[in-house]
Amino acid sequence: MTALAITRMNDLFAVVMLSGIYSLMSAGFFLDLDAVDVAFTEASVGAGISTLLMLASLKMVKRYEGKTKYKPMLALGVVGATALLLIYGTLDMPHFGSADAPIHQHVAPRYINDSMAEVGVPNIVTSILASYRGYDTLGETLVIFTAGIGVMSLLRVSRETKDQQQKRVPADMQQQIILRIVAKMMLPLILLFALYVQFHGDYGPGGGFQAGVIFAAGIILYTMLFGLSTARLVFKSSLLQKLTAVGVLLYAGVGVACMLLGGNFLDYNVLRHDPVHGQHLGILLVELGVGITVATVMITLFFKFTWRTVKHKYIEQ
Amino acid sequence: MNIIGLYNYWIVVVLMAIGFFIVIAHENLIKKLIGLSIFQTAVFFLYISMGKVVGGTAPILDDKWHLYSNPLPHVLILTAIVVGISTTAVGLALVVRIQEAYGSIEEHEIQTLNAQDQIECQLEAYGFMKNNAFSVKSLDE
User: Fold this and answer.
1) Tens digit of pLDDT for each residue in A107-166?
2) Interfacial B residues in 22-81 facing A (CB < 8 Å)
3) What digits encode the pLDDT tens for the residues A240-281?
4) Residue environment code for A213-243, b if the CB has 16+ CB neighbours within 10 A, otherwise e
5) CA torsion sign, A127 to A128 to A131 to A134?
């Protein structure tokens, strides 16, 4: 329903808000389907960061969508035909929730039955993410890293001049005393929660991806209320850039360390004398690397977008 | 054959169709990106709903439970969500740059501007100076 409303709306602001609601609803849906880790990620990423980035870029473009020139009937026809074909394709798929579907036959039983003995981490999602499919996750961390670099180079802004430094841009919400005080009280809790999610990911839902995003959300809240210039005093862009790389290097470094100790790349068993301890250490380090990269990339994305908006304001004046 | 049990796929197909429609029928680039992310969520739903086992619980090992949902799709989608936001951010950055270069994010307006540019370049190549004062000045520099 929300998705349908999105197609019809002309006001892009409303569309972005609706897509935030849509993400939150899909997070609930994931929760219902037992995917707690996924719901966690979707709630923080989809409803939080993505809506914010959309709003920031909306500030730089026109708010209303123009009239469409094409005839929508043709598009509707193409879409309808594709949908019908897809539905025809689903007819011999296994039923929803059936335990004997092919997807549950291949590697999943091994993950569920043996991961406690092999990895020793109760949260199976974490053990697959960081250990069984560690290569995948390394690749995905690299994708995030690359996206961060891409946005950095696309939205590069010249270094702050002396003139700009003197008239530091005050945050739009500088006057909101209640918001500021509440945010000040909440910020340590948010950051603490992020750290909890980071290091408790082995036992409950959570891990590097979620923790990184939550950490970034805390910093973003601070930035929105206290101004970009203040936040950049703490998180200098050179520091952020270095940390982004440190995360990926930590991940890959663990892999290389495993190789040096005589195992395969990302084979944590050799890190300690006891394979299960080795797995614990490996997963902890790897998740830390993921968390650092995700957090810094998200903060960088937000900073770049907002800095661009601030620059637009200058041009208008 | 009982086909009601396939309803999860149909929800996915409908969502996918909506996303696809937004991407091809709308000209506003931000709208297109949102359509793309709806399309993406449809794929997420497909994976997660396939991993669900009726009566199962979240894949966190505990003595009280014996039936778990399949954790593999969860891992794939978990990372896909975060990768999705990073690629969306790159897309948004491109949109911002397009807005700065063309002053618009509507597809047909951009195409018209491009066509005009091309014609002007060709005219210039054939020696028709559309704006003489400007070209002389730029040569001097």
Assistant:
1) 777 777 777 777 777 788 888 887 788 888 888 889 999 998 888 888 876 655 555 555
2) 22, 24-28, 30-31, 33-35, 37-38, 41, 44-45, 48-54, 56-62, 67-81
3) 888 888 888 888 888 888 888 877 777 777 777 777 788 888
4) bbbbbbbbbbbbbbbbbebbeebebeebeeb
5) negative
Identify which of A30, A6, A91 has the alpha carbon closest to the alpha carbon of residue B18.
Answer: A6
- The answer for residues whose C-beta is within 8 angstroms of residue B130's C-beta and 6 or more apart is B120, B123, B124
Which residues, including other chains, have CB under 8 Å from residue A210's CB and lie 6 or more apart? A37, A40, A41, A44, A197, A201
**% of chain A surpassing 90 pLDDT:** 1
Give residue-wise pLDDT tens across range A72-116: 778 888 888 888 888 888 777 777 777 777 777 777 777 777 777
Helix (H, G, I), strand (E, B) or coil at A94: coil
- The CATH 1.10.287.3510 portion of chain B extends over 7-105
CATH architecture of the domain B7-105 equals Orthogonal Bundle (1.10)
Distance from CA of A224 to the nearest CA of B (A): 18
How are the residues of chain B apportioned to helix, strand and coil, as percentages rounded to the nearest 5? 75, 5, 20
Question: CB count, 10 Å around CB of A253?
Answer: 14
Whether A68 contacts chain B with CB within 8 A: yes
